[in-house]
Each structure stands twice: as C-alpha cells, then as structure tokens.
C-alpha cells in the first residue's frame, strides 16, 4: 500500500499539479493532504479544483490548516481601514476574493484533525500544526511534545505547518512532516517541492521523502499575470527572493518590518505595517544581504 502525503500548497497550483502528475505514474492507493491551500501564490481556485478532481480518482483524507482559519475569521474580508497596508493583507484578500460559494462550503466541512484507518495497518493521525492546535509545531527534541502527544492513540502522526521535512520518534509516536508543496523551508531546498509517500511494511509505515524541482519562472509569471505584485507588493517579491535563494522567509521580512514600525511609531498592531517600512525591511534583508539573488529576480521592488 502506498499513501501520498502532501501539505502546505499555499495556492501554488503549478507545483501541486506537478506532484499529482508525478504520483499518477506511481501505484498510489490514497492521498492525505494536511492543510493550507491558499497563501503566497496565485492558484487558489486551481488548487481546490485539483483537490476536487483527486476526490474522484482516489480515497482522499484531507484537513484544514491555519490559512483556512484565517479565511473564516474574515481576515481577507473588505476592511477599508486596512487598504493602505497592501503587502500585509494583500494575499489574504486575494484568497478571500477568489473563493467560490462551493469552495467555502467544502473548506467549512474539513476537520482540524483526522484519524485514518487502513485494514492491517497502524492508524494515522492527520493534523496541520499539532494534534492540539492548528498553528502548533511538532519539532524534534521539543519538551512540549509530551503534552502534545501524550494522549494520542495513533502511532503515526502526520503534520505540516513548518514547511520543513522531518521524521522522528517521540513519546511512543512516529512523527512525519512531509514539508511543503508550495514553498519548502528546508535549507538549500527553497526551489524544490517536498512531499512523502508512505509505503506499507507489514503493519508499519515507511516514509519515502521526495523533492521535485519547482518551475520558478512559470510560477512567477503566473503571479504577475494575476497582479500579485500589485495586490501584495513586497510579500510577492519576498516569495520570489526566497525561491531564488535568499535564506530568509516572508515571515522573516515581516518580523523586521514590524520591528521597524515599532521603532518608528512606538506601536505595531497587525496589520498596520506601512509600505515604507516593508520597503526598508526588504532593502535591508533581501537587497542588502542577497544582492546576487535580487539581480536574478523578475520583480525589482526597491
């Protein structure tokens, strides 16, 4: 038995389609997908359409992530008072605006965790961050794992959220994070697609971790075609910089922009991060530290 395990697509439908096409050449018996279907990329609708097609072809076990929580909390809704904070809220608004009625109904019905049983096999627990919190993190050698895993019945726990592939044992459980389809944070692998195939070995599961090459130029041109560089200027530029080799995530630049906002104004309450402070953070962290990456970018935010 072979089970495909994917997480953190973040609207990167080009990468998602590439993974599905690869897996269609393998003997896959089912898919487990661990949340975060919107985020940094332009293919929100396309991502959900691929999921709907998968349901017609395979048994599909799927849960929601924190990005889905953001949508239902209305963070992408139309708050006129946020209009000037384009980089901070732009991608949330883009995802919100691109959801169709049946998409809302589908995501609303997704659980936060799911126990999956296959006859003769150890059960799998699906979660996005941790079994207790959608934004939690299951990390190797983390003392809090005892609290997070102590009362879990399943032997195998499949999680995402960190965008980093990891596999370890703790508290009598075997934890597998397949990394991210959309934008992996594995060091030196930012330009890759990361996922796992679980293979049955007796009643146990053995993980095969796979990297595929991202088609970065196609992804960036698609983002530009959907005007993401206008909708969320520095967020989109950070995504490209990260893809092309900058060892800093969007979140790192966000943290610096928030710090600058606090230093300049004495307060920083999300999403009130002016574009001028995003610009300073981007120039300092991306252009300043990774000029060779900036030279290769399509989006020349300055």
Task: Walk me through this protein's architecture.
This protein is of the alpha/beta class and 302 residues long. 39% of the residues lie in helices and 18% in strands. It has a five-stranded mixed beta sheet. It has a five-stranded mixed beta sheet with strand order 4-5-6-8-7. Helix 4 (86-97) crosses helix 9 (233-243) and helix 10 (250-265) packs across helix 11. The longest helix is centred in the last third of the chain and has 16 residues, at 250-265.
Distance from N terminus to C terminus (CA atoms, Å) equals: 51 Å
Which sequence of SSEs, written as H and E, runs from N to C? EHEHEHHHEEHEEEEEHHHHHH
Largest sheet: 5 strands, mixed
Count of beta strands: 10
- Tally of individual helices: 12
Give the oligomeric state.
single chain
**What gyration radius follows from the Cα positions, in whole Å?**
19 Å
Extract low-pLDDT stretches: none
Name the features.
302 residues, alpha/beta, 5-stranded mixed beta sheet, 12 helices, 10 strands
SSE blueprint:
Layout: E1 2-6, H1 13-23, E2 30-33, H2 44-57, E3 60-62, H3 66-72, H4 86-97, H5 101-108, E4 113-116, E5 124-127, H6 145-149, E6 156-158, E7 165-170, E8 173-178, E9 192-201, E10 204-213, H7 216-225, H8 228-231, H9 233-243, H10 250-265, H11 275-287, H12 291-296
Parallel strand pairs: 1-2, 2-3, 5-6, 6-8
Antiparallel strand pairs: 1-9, 4-5, 7-8, 9-10
Helix pairs in contact: 4-9, 10-11
Describe what is shown at a glance:
The chain is α/β, with parallel strands linked by helices. It contains twelve helices and ten strands. The chain has a five-stranded mixed β-sheet. Strands 4-5-6-8-7 form a five-stranded mixed β-sheet.
